[in-house]
Amino acid sequence: MDLSNVLILGGTGTFGSAFVPAALATGEVERLAVFSRDEHKQFHMRRALGDDKRLRWFIGDVRDYDRLRLAMRGVDTVVQAAALKHVPSGEANPFEHVRTNVLGSQNVALAAAEEGVERVMGVSTDKAVEPTTLYGATKLCMERLFIASNANIGRTKLSCVRYGNVLGSRGSFLETLRTLKEKGAKTFPLRSMESTRFWLSAEDAASFVLARLADMEGGEIFVPKLPASSAYAFAKSILPDAEPAMEEMPVGEKVHETLISGNESQMVEERESYFIIRPHGPRSTARQWRYTSNEQRAPVS
After folding, report:
1. H or E segment at 253?
2. Fewest C-beta in 10 Å: which of 85, 183, 229, 294?
3. CB 147 within 8 A of CB 219
4. Is residue 209 part of a domain?
5. What is the pTM of this model?
């Protein structure tokens, strides 16, 4: 696998902050471009990483197609982790989530094809499985868009990874619990005593993406094997002396998240530590068409 020139979109988020040092540590990267909207986060990330000559920095938005194309010039690998992710925000601001998570991902796919990028990996979530929220629905759209693009936009390979909640991400349950612990709180918020979730660290998420970049063919959804954990037990491990303060379950929130739907189970291949969801239909048809500059589609010769 050639990882000499890498672009991480949404590179200053929780995942990106773990992915960048992990990618640099492989020793394969000659140039790593960090693309995000937030100059404040970029400033602090640059200070934390030091003066590494392999790093490049782009202020930009995945909604801006021309900026994406400029950032992708000479790039062989793109990781698409840019997204609006907060569920309540998605319900209150649906157009903004669609513009970033869906139309922004479309821009990524098309720009990658135009610039001859070798591979693109989209970062998805368990909330994309049979979604009940707008955020989950936009991530499902991103997955379908990337997988289907293998048959429509040239020789760029596009795949996705899908996993659960990243520990310590901004606004996460863990962040809430840590804040409460610092304040000496005797209660913690809980919406159901039966709730279960899939958790993994940002470092494990970054390692999983790097490993799957090495063996992706285009069209797969990669799912790590993660145990389902009780939200109540998780909270008690952080705040053993606190008790739950029950809250109303928001509309659309699931008691139990899932990583693979029943309909997808017939397309699953199992590996030692992860699953692969293969695309619909025969693999031989997945790259039947190539993208041309005038947007006409022609059979691959």
Report:
1. none
2. 294
3. yes
4. yes
5. 0.90
Residue 100 has a pLDDT of 98
Does residue 186 form part of some domain?
no
End-to-end CA gap in the chain: 25
Domain that residue 271 falls in: 5-166+201-225+260-299
Residue 120's pLDDT is 98
pLDDT-derived band at 299 (thresholds 50, 70, 90) equals very low
Q: Which two tokens stand for residue 299?
A: 């059979």
Percent of the chain scoring above 70 in pLDDT? 92
10 Å CB burial of residue 183 (0-12, 13-18, 19+) is exposed
Tokens describing residue 198:
């899939």
In a domain, 235, yes or no: no
Is residue 40 a contact partner of residue 26, using CB atoms and an 8 Å limit? no
Return the CATH number at 216: 3.40.50.720
Residue 147: strand, helix, or coil: helix
Backbone φ and ψ for 24, nearest 5 degrees, come out as: -65, -35
Gyration radius of the chain's alpha carbons: 20
How many structural domains compose the chain? 1
The tens digit of pLDDT for each residue in 44-78 reads 999 999 989 999 999 999 999 999 999 999 999 99
Q: Measured between alpha carbons, how far is 65 from 111 in angstroms, rounded to an integer?
A: 7
Query: pLDDT tens-digit profile of 15-37?
Result: 999 999 999 999 999 999 999 99
Give domain status of residue 264, yes or no: yes
Amino acid 154: pLDDT: 84
Residue type, 204: D
Residue 286's pLDDT is 41
Q: Which residues are catalytic?
A: 127
Beta-carbon count within 10 A of 112 CB:
28
